[in-house]
Design brief:
With about 800 residues, the protein is mainly beta. The chain is built from 1 helix and 56 strands.
C-alpha cells in the first residue's frame, strides 16, 4: 500500500496510514462524504505480486469513484485473473512499471488513467458546506510525450454540465515537465510547482478552493482536456488525489444512559461521529458538561472539570461505526445512597477545526447535545396509599387520586421483597407516610415480587402471608406481579383503606300512626377514617329488615341487603305494626371506596298509643309601633280584671318557664285601654307537649269583634311559603324561632295561610262561627308532617312556634 506522507505533507494534513484510506461499503451510504475515499486507487489490488499490468473495470469495482465514461467499448486488461466486464462505463487502473510508467516516489503500486477509452471524468460525490474553503492535493503525469503535456481540469460538477465550476487546470508531460503553471480559476489558489517534484515523471499540485454555493452533495473530480498525441484513449495519469474540507462532527445520539453501577459506561454512552479528513496532529473537540448530575459526586470527567477535549487522530473518516466513532471518556460514581435519576448534558462547543453539522444529511442540523441519564440502581421503592375512593379497583393502576395520602396502617405494615422461590430477599417496615425503600437490591433477580404483611419477613426464610390490620381492606392486590430487578425501580404502589363504622340510632318515643300510615325513620349516619362523618347523599345497606313493620324507601318496600345510593332521609319511612311496639332493623354504611361496615348498626323506633297534646297561648305583642316584650305568666288566682288573669283551664299552659322555651311567651294578656284607630298585633303561640308527635295541626283564630284584620301588614317581607306572587301578606308564621320563618298570603294558594272574611261560607268548621274574619294556618304539611313532642325547654326547635297577624281598633 502507498505511504501517503508525501500526499498530505504539502497540505499540512500530516502522515496517514493507508489503512485510514477507508473504502466505501454499504454502511457508507448512511453518511455524508467530506473527502475522497480510496484516493490512491489502491483498492482493490490488481495482478499478482510485482506484476506490471493494467485493467479496465466497471466503476462499481473501484471503491469511492465514479466516471462519466460511456459504455463505448468492452474493457480489456492483462493482469492475472482479470475478466472483462464487457461494454460498461470504464475506469482504467495501471500497476507501477507497466509500459515504463512507475508510480511517484513512495506513492504505492497503482494509479488511474483518466482517458480510458474516451475523454471522461473521474469523480466522487462530496458534501460541500456553503462558504467553506476546501484543500486539495493530487499527482498528475502525462503518458506518451516528454514535450507535449496531457491536460486535465479539476472541477466541481460534471464536465457534461455547463454550470460546473472548474477551479484548476494542470499540464504535465511524461517526464514531469510542467509546460504551463497550473491555472487557478473561480477563486482557487494554486501555488506554482517545479518539474518532476514527486519523482518518476509525476508532479504534485496543491491548493485551496472557496465554495459559495448552497450546502449540498456535489460531484468533484477530474476531466480530461487533451492528450499529447490527441488520442482520447491515451493520457492523463492520476494518483493520490485528495479533496477535503474540515471534518464534520456530531453526537451519534441525543440520549443514552445506564445504571450507576456501570462506572465506565459501555451500554450506550455519548459518542462522537466524525466524517472527513483530519490533518496531521489530529484535532481537539471541546466538550462541556452540565445537567442535574453533579460533577465530582455523580460522575467525573478526564479533566475533573466541566470542560475537556476529545482528541481525534489524523485520518480519513467515512462515518462508519467501526472506524469513525469515538466514545466520550467519563466515569460514573457508584454508591449506596438513593439519589434517583440524574442526567449529564454533554455539549459540543464551537471550534475552527471542524464543522458541527449532520453526518447523515449534507448541511443538516447536527446533534450537538447528548443527554446521559444515570439510573440509581441502589433502591426499589413504592408507597402504600390510603385509597379512599377505591380508584385502584383491585388493580395497581390509578391508585392515588385527589388529596389521598400515604399510610402505614398505624405502623403495622411491612413491605417484603420475595424471590422466585418465595424466600425473603429484603424486608422493611412501611414509613408513616406510606413509603418504603429497599436499599442495595440484588441486581438481575428474575420473577421477584413485593408483598404487604403485618408480619415482618426474615431474610432467607419463607415469606409470611400477605395481610392487613383489622378494619383495613385492600383496594389493590397485596402482592405485586412478578418483575425483574435491574436499575432502580420506583412506584411499586399499593392501595388500602379503612372500613366505615355505622352509628346506632334510636328514635324518640312516638305515637303509632296505625293502619298503613308511615313514620319517618331517624336519619342514618356513619363515620369513616377517610370520609369523616357521612349521611345524606351517601350509600347505606339495609342488612336486616324489621319483623314487626315494613320499611319503605321512596314508597317502595325495601328488601334485605338492598343498597340505598344517594341517601335521602325523607324517603326512608316505616309502617309499624299497630300498637305499643319497638321496631328494629340493621344497617351498614358504605364509604366512598364502596366498602361496607362489617359490624352493622341498629335502628330502634319505639311506638306508643298515647295521644299528642298541643298548647296554645295568645298574646298582644305590639300596639301601634311599640313592641311589647313583657314576659307575663297567666294566673287564675288574681282578679279577673288583672292584667295577667287567665282561666284556670289554661293556667298551667300559660307558664313562660315550662315547658315553653325560656322567655318565648313575650307580650301582654291584657294590654290596657286602646282607642279607635290603634293597631294591635296578636300572636298565637303553639307547643307540641304530648307523649307523641302532633300531626295534622291547623290553627284557626277568629278576629276579635272590635277590630278589623289588616291584610297587608307583611307585604314585601321574606321568606315566603309558596304564596301567590303579588298577593297581600297579612299572616306571619314562625317555627322554632322568635322571628317569622315565613310570611303568608291571605288568599287560597300554595302557602300554608289564609284569611277568611266575615261570614265566608268556606270558613273551616273547626273555626266556629266566623262573624269578623278568621286567620287559618296549616302548621303541618307534607314536607313538615308533624310537630315532634317537646323534650325540654326549647327542644326540639320544631316543636313550638307562633302565628301572628295585626288588626285595627274599630
Amino acid at each position: 500500500m502507498k505511504n501517503l506522507r508525501q500526499n498530505f505533507q504539502a497540505l499540512g494534513w500530516g502522515l496517514m496510514s493507508a489503512t485510514l484510506v477507508l473504502q466505501p461499503t454499504l454502511v457508507q451510504a448512511q453518511y455524508i462524504q467530506r473527502s475522497f475515499l480510496n484516493p490512491g486507487f489502491e483498492s482493490p489490488v490488481f495482478g499478482s505480486a510485482n506484476q506490471q499490468c493494467y485493467v479496465q473495470v466497471d466503476q462499481s469495482l473501484i471503491p469511492g469513484w465514479s466516471t462519466t465514461h460511456g459504455s463505448v467499448k468492452a474493457g480489456t486488461g492483462n493482469c492475472t485473473g482479470y475478466v472483462s466486464p464487457g461494454s460498461v462505463p470504464l475506469i482504467e487502473i495501471w500497476t507501477s512499471g507497466f509500459l515504463g510508467a512507475s508510480t511517484a516516489t513512495n506513492a504505492g503500486n497503482q494509479f488511474a488513467e483518466l482517458n480510458a477509452e474516451q475523454a471522461s471524468e473521474l469523480y466522487q460525490n462530496i458534501c460541500l458546506i456553503q462558504n467553506e474553503t476546501i484543500s486539495f492535493s493530487l499527482l498528475h503525469r502525462g503518458r506518451s510525450s516528454a514535450t507535449t503535456a496531457d491536460v486535465a481540469n479539476f472541477l466541481i460538477g460534471l464536465n457534461t454540465n455547463p454550470t460546473s465550476t472548474v477551479f484548476g487546470r494542470f499540464s504535465t508531460t511524461s517526464d514531469g515537465t510542467v509546460t504551463a503553471q497550473p491555472v487557478a480559476q473561480n477563486g482557487a489558489t494554486i501555488p506554482t510547482v517545479t518539474n518532476n517534484n514527486a519523482g518518476n515523471g509525476w508532479v504534485r499540485y496543491t491548493g485551496t478552493v472557496p465554495y459559495t454555493g448552497a450546502s449540498a452533495n456535489q460531484p468533484v473530480g477530474f476531466a480530461a482536456v487533451s492528450t499529447a498525441g490527441g488520442d482520447n484513449t491515451v493520457g492523463n495519469f492520476l494518483d493520490e488525489v485528495q479533496f477535503a474540507g474540515k471534518p464534520v462532527v456530531e453526537f451519534t445520539a441525543s440520549s443514552g444512559g445506564a445504571a450507576e453501577s456501570e462506572t465506565n459506561p459501555t451500554t450506550n454512552p455519548p459518542k462522537l461521529r466524525i466524517v472527513g479528513l483530519v490533518p496531521a496532529g489530529g484535532i481537539s473537540v471541546p466538550i462541556s458538561v452540565s445537567g442535574t448530575a453533579t460533577l465530582g459526586t455523580d460522575y467525573n470527567t478526564t479533566s475533573g472539570t466541566s470542560t475537556f477535549n476529545i482528541t481525534i487522530p489524523a485520518g480519513n473518516y467515512d462515518g462508519s461505526d467501526a472506524t469513525s466513532v469515538f466514545t466520550i471518556p467519563f466515569t460514573v460514581i457508584n454508591n449506596n445512597v438513593p439519589q434517583g435519576v440524574r442526567t449529564i448534558i454533554f455539549t459540543i462547543e464551537t471550534s475552527t477545526s471542524f464543522f458541527a453539522s449532520s453526518t447523515t444529511t449534507c448541511g443538516g442540523s447536527p446533534t450537538v447535545v447528548s443527554n446521559y441519564t444515570i439510573y440509581d440502581d441502589d433502591f426499589l421503592s413504592g408507597k402504600v396509599w390510603d385509597d379512599a375512593d377505591n380508584s385502584a379497583n383491585n388493580t395497581f393502576a390509578n391508585i392515588n387520586t385527589g388529596s389521598e395520602t400515604g399510610t402505614n396502617a398505624g405502623g403495622l405494615l411491612n413491605a417484603i421483597l420475595v424471590d422466585v422461590n418465595n424466600k425473603v430477599l429484603k424486608t422493611i417496615p412501611v414509613a408513616a407516610d406510606g413509603t418504603y425503600t429497599f436499599l442495595d437490591v440484588p441486581l438481575n433477580q428474575s420473577n421477584v415480587k413485593i408483598i404487604l404483611s403485618t408480619t415482618a419477613g426474615t431474610v432467607g426464610n419463607t415469606a409470611p402471608a400477605p395481610s392487613l390490620p383489622s378494619n383495613w381492606v385492600n383496594t389493590s392486590p397485596l402482592t405485586t406481579a412478578t418483575f425483574d430487578t435491574g436499575t432502580n425501580i420506583s412506584s411499586k404502589d399499593f392501595g388500602i383503606e379503612q372500613l366505615p363504622d355505622t352509628n346506632n340510632v334510636t328514635a324518640s318515643l312516638q305515637t303509632n300512626p296505625g293502619g298503613t300510615n308511615k313514620s319517618q325513620v331517624p336519619t342514618l349516619s356513619a363515620t369513616d377514617p377517610e370520609d369523616g362523618n357521612f349521611s345524606v347523599g351517601k350509600s347505606f345497606k339495609i342488612i336486616s329488615l324489621p319483623t314487626n313493620g315494613i320499611l319503605y324507601y321512596n314508597n317502595i318496600a325495601v328488601t334485605a341487603n338492598q343498597v340505598i345510593s344517594n341517601y335521602d332521609p325523607t324517603q326512608l319511612t316505616l309502617d309499624p305494626n299497630d300498637g305499643a311496639i319497638t321496631v328494629t332493623f340493621t344497617v351498614a354504611g358504605i364509604d366512598a371506596a364502596g366498602k361496607e361496615d362489617p359490624t352493622p348498626a341498629t335502628v330502634t323506633m319505639p311506638f306508643t298509643t298515647s295521644k299528642p297534646k298541643l298548647l296554645l297561648v295568645k298574646r298582644i305583642t305590639r300596639i301601634n309601633n311599640q313592641d311589647l316584650n313583657n314576659i307575663v305568666d297567666g294566673r287564675s288566682d288574681v282578679s279577673t280584671s288583672a292584667a295577667n288573669y287567665v282561666s284556670p283551664l289554661y293556667e298551667t299552659d300559660d307558664d313562660s318557664d315550662k315547658p315553653w322555651p325560656i322567655g318565648y311567651l313575650r307580650g301582654l294578656i291584657n294590654a290596657g285601654i286602646v282607642k279607635l284607630g290603634d293597631e294591635l298585633e296578636y300572636t298565637i303561640y303553639f307547643l307540641s307537649n304530648g307523649l307523641s308527635n302532633a300531626t295534622n295541626v291547623r290553627i284557626c283564630d277568629l278576629v276579635p269583634g272590635n277590630v278589623t284584620f289588616i291584610p297587608n301588614t307583611f307585604n314585601g317581607m321574606t321568606p315566603n311559603d309558596g304564596g301567590l306572587p303579588g298577593a297581600d301578606q297579612g299572616i306571619a308564621l314562625g317555627i322554632g324561632s322568635t322571628t317569622p320563618t315565613a310570611y303568608l298570603t291571605n288568599v287560597a294558594d300554595n302557602d300554608r295561610g289564609r284569611f277568611y272574611t266575615a261570614n265566608d261560607s268556606a270558613t273551616p268548621s273547626y273555626c266556629g262561627i266566623n262573624t269578623n274574619g278568621a286567620v287559618v294556618v296549616n302548621i303541618t304539611v307534607p314536607s313538615f308532617p308533624s310537630l315532634p313532642a317537646a323534650t325540654g325547654s326549647g327542644t326540639p326547635a320544631n316543636s313550638y312556634g307562633f302565628v301572628r297577624f295585626r288588626a285595627k281598633v274599630k
